[in-house]
Amino acid sequence: MVSILNSIDTGHEDMVHDAEVDYYGLRLATCSSDNSVKVYDIKNGGTALIDDLKGHFGPVWQIAWSHPKFGNLLASCSYDRKVIIWKEQNGKFTKYYEYANHDSSVNSVQFAPPEYGLVLACGSSDGSISFLSYISDTHSWDAKKIQNAHAIGCNAVSWAPAITPMSSDFSQSDTTKLVKRLVSGGCDNLVKIWREEEDRWIEENKLEVHSDWVRDVAWAPSVGLHHHTIASCSQDRRVIIWTSDDGTNWNSTVIQTFDDVVWNVSWSLNGNILAVSGGDNKITLWKQNLQGNWQCVSDVVKGQGQINSQ
To answer: Residue 198 CB: number of other CB atoms within 10 A?
Structure first.
């Protein structure tokens, strides 16, 4: 059973594109077509505006919180081709770093698992994926880029968990060799998996099932799971679950064809429940049953607080 805990009037003057809660669940950040990012204190069920961040000159598509070991950092990306990393100091957020080396809208940002250090991945409509890494020795940022990652444009990026799921050939020594992996989705209808090798990123897999633009991708947390799992959604109205035991050979399962375009997919913290939202104005929750089939366990009609449990 799903219950709505709180409804928040963000005060945005245009459409809200993303809402993200920080690591501890105490802060909520939202971004909008009104070019702003807002941060709220949501402790104890309350809602108090902490800051209204003005730095973009176009719709802000997505935001991402860093792990708290790096401080209170918030990244935002916009149609204005910029990525801004904001840092909280004395209760207010200031611009910490700005990256403006994309040639078109930046659509997606996500911080890497903290085991990799402070690294931000960014996907852009110019077709490239950039990686912004903080170099602690010099207190500076280094940028790397995958050119032409997706034809026409990249819509979404998601990091693989740093802890590799246990498999038959898993050994203790593997835990000391963390390999950065990332999944991306693009306007070429493709889901791609990338692996960092020495000082460059290589395309490890190209997953071809979607028949229209891939709008979102999400690599599931691997807590207690013995395989890799990725969810993707598309303009083709389908959500696909990709699974692999070895990270090389991937199997696809279409969990449903929806009534409208599907915009977002998001995993629960333990990776066993998938939230799906789309143009049908619903948020549905999906879980795999004992037979391995994906079932809708709950759906919420947005804006109406109506909950239908299956």
So the answer is: 5
